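Duplicate of #3305? Posting structure anyway:
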């Protein structure tokens, strides 16, 4: 019986491979250098790919089956590479996939976000971040995973074309908040996301950015999730957004036609507890593709 499910099922991994004409591309970007909290975010792409066979392509809640092919563009050679030196390779890798409907970067620390935005073209792109932190630290000591948004402002990205969602109390500074307000960045806190609903807040900000930009880049800094549900990031805190809300917001983002590139950052497999990190990252990818398939 060739279609027996006795020992296997059609999995998410079956959608990913060498598919030059696929509408979605996957790029590993395991940048780890100059993380403010030392860790092993460089292990993220390998752990992410390894978990994909554990996910079916069928969504029992909607009755829909994922069938969108994903071109695996491989991993960038970023071992021991600084954020400054990684800028060109990450930017060019995203730009090389410009003809596709969606490019997915798997980090890696949050320093990949700046070159990812440049890969879409700074002058036409808006940025939406799901992140517990502003990432507006000063750049006078060089690029780190704590200042990609600050670096983008300095590159010329207008603050009004940035939406930051999920910002956590006692995880940021007054100065960073003042920078965001002065720049015109739309700031939506973790409490606001709980009160209004994360998916609704995300939808509102996507609509706002759509009126200002040709395309949108989304940074999923996964430390936005409550640490009790997501221990695999050094920056995750108690009181973050719920993982279910995160999944629902991901589907909304995947469905938006102006979202052309996203990244998943700050996943550190060395902090795993019972595969919780990799299983969360894999489910995130399912939700992203489900949203994209519905475009």
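Output from current build:
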């Amino acid at each position: 019986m060739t279609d027996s499910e006795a020992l296997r099922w059609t999995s998410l991994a079956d959608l990913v491979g060498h598919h030059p004409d696929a509408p979605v591309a996957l790029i590993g970007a395991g940048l780890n250098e100059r993380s403010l909290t030392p860790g092993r975010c460089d292990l993220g792409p390998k752990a992410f790919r390894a978990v994909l066979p554990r996910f079916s392509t069928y969504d029992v809640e909607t009755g829909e089956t994922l069938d969108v092919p994903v071109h695996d563009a491989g991993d960038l050679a970023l071992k021991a590479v600084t954020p400054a030196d990684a800028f060109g390779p990450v930017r060019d890798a995203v730009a090389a996939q410009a003809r596709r409907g969606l490019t997915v970067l798997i980090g890696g620390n949050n320093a990949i976000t700046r070159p990812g935005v440049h890969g879409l073209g700074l002058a036409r792109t808006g940025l939406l971040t799901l992140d517990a932190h502003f990432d507006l630290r000063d750049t006078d000591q060089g690029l780190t995973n704590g200042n990609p948004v600050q670096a983008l402002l300095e590159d010329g990205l207008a603050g009004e074309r940035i939406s930051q969602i999920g910002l956590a109390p006692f995880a940021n500074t007054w100065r960073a908040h003042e920078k965001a307000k002065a720049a015109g960045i739309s700031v939506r806190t973790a409490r606001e996301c709980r009160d209004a609903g994360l998916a609704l807040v995300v939808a509102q900000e996507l609509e706002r950015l759509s009126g200002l930009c040709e395309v949108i880049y989304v940074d999923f800094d996964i430390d936005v999730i409550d640490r009790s549900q997501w221990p695999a990031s050094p920056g995750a805190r108690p009181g973050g957004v719920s993982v279910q809300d995160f999944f629902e917001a991901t589907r909304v983002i995947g469905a938006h036609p102006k979202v052309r590139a996203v990244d998943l950052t700050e996943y550190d497999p060395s902090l795993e507890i019972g595969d919780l990190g990799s299983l969360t990252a894999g489910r995130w990818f399912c939700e992203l593709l489900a949203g994209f398939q519905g475009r």
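Confirmed duplicate; merging threads. The mean pLDDT is 96. The longest strand covers residues 215-221.
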